[in-house]
Amino acid sequence: MQYVGIQTQITRNNRLSLLLLFAFPTILLVMLWVFFAIMESLGSEYFYIDEVNSNFLQTAPFVIIAVAIWFTIAYFYNAKMISAATGARPLERRENKRIYNIVENLCMTCGMDMPKVYVVDDPQLNAFASGIDKGSYAVTLTTGIMQVLDDEELAGVIGHELTHIRNRDTRLLITSIIFVGIVSTTLRMVYEVVRRIFWYDDSSSRSNFRSSSGRNDKGKGVSMLAAVVVAIICMAIAYLFISLTRFAISRKREYMADAGGAELCGNPLALASALRKISGNVGLRECKRDDIAQLFIAYPQSLDGANFFSSMFSTHPDIQKRIEILEQF
Which of 51, 161, 254, 263 is catalytic? Predict the structure, then answer.
């Protein structure tokens, strides 16, 4: 099997990145409009769509600006964000010439600029690529994977990660990670609001909120019901977005990166052997974030077991299946 279609994959990833950039604000704005619509229907005998639209138009610009600022900061500081989540640090050449030689040789083979090299002090076996441009592209390895794998196996793993960079998978994945982070934070805020309404009942505060919208107070029950309904809708839509993002980050990318890594190192069986070893001790102890785990060459078992839906919508195919395909090259 030959690794082909790199330009097609790059074009597809760029298109999906733009799609996510437009889809996410659209979903947030839909959620905002639904919020005002529900509050209007529960807070008044009649449904005044003009008032819903008015409230929406007054609030929407602030939501767009807030998301744009949040996304911009996270996008350009993604390297620090990922390093903080994983505990990665720069690996100096003098610290491990072996790794630098492997990375340099593979980069010369495929004609790409050498990315930065990072290491995570972790006995478990994992690796990942990250970055959005030449200035931030990086390959990160755990100390465990560097110690356990031989040179040919490491070449296969690093080739896999370099293929992700060449295909611009990392840019798409980081865009997804940022959006998922915004959704998660928003959900936590919604949860906190609902919790405060239920456990810290402040009738006057809710009355002020409703009166500011020009409607009469219809009592504690309506306010609680509205909060619960809005929270459920937000969670459902946010989860839908996360699911669609997961599907956009297709499992096919891992197969393509495996094929690219096998071609770069010139030994598909070496990469298959590396994946078999990784599967026996996969993980990254410092990282507890499911979204960051999308970057890893193998999905940590601890995160798989923590959430049924994490494995259901995982961006990684079964590692045994990947090994079987590599052994057929």
Answer: 161
Can you give the pTM of this predicted structure?
0.77
Helix and strand element counts for the chain (H, E)? 14, 4
161 catalytically annotated = yes
Instruction: Please report where in the chains the tokens 């630098």 appear, as a residue.
Output: 100
Between these two residues, 197 and 95, which has the higher pLDDT value?
95
Q: In whole angstroms, what is the distance from residue 220 CA to residue 169 CA?
A: 49
State residue 89 phi and psi, 5-degree precision. -140, 155
Tens-place pLDDT, residues 268-307: 999 999 999 998 888 887 787 777 888 899 877 655 444 4
Q: What is the CA radius of gyration of the chain?
A: 24
- Please provide residue 131's backbone torsions phi and psi, each rounded to the nearest 5 degrees: 115, 160
Is the pLDDT confidence value at 242 over 50?
yes
- Strand ranges of the sheet holding 116-120, from the earlier edge strand across to the other edge: 89-90, 116-120, 138-142, 127-130
218 has a pLDDT exceeding 50 = no
Closest-CA residue to 86 (of 238, 291, 225, 329): 291
How deeply is 166 buried, as exposed, middle or buried, from its count of CB atoms within 10 A (0-12, 13-18, 19+)? buried
Alpha-carbon dihedral of residues 277, 296, 84, 74, nearest 10 degrees? 170
Alpha-carbon separation of residue 220 from 17, 205, 227 (angstroms): 44, 11, 11
First to last CA, the chain: 5
Distance in angstroms (rounded) separating the CA atoms of residues 232 and 236 = 6
DSSP assignments along 69-129, one per residue = HHHHHHHHTHHHHHHHHHT-EEPPGGG-HHHHHHHHHHHHHHT-PPPEEEEE--SSB-EEE
d(CA 150, CA 146): 8
pLDDT higher than threshold 70 for residue 1: no
Judge whether residue 146 has pLDDT over 90. yes
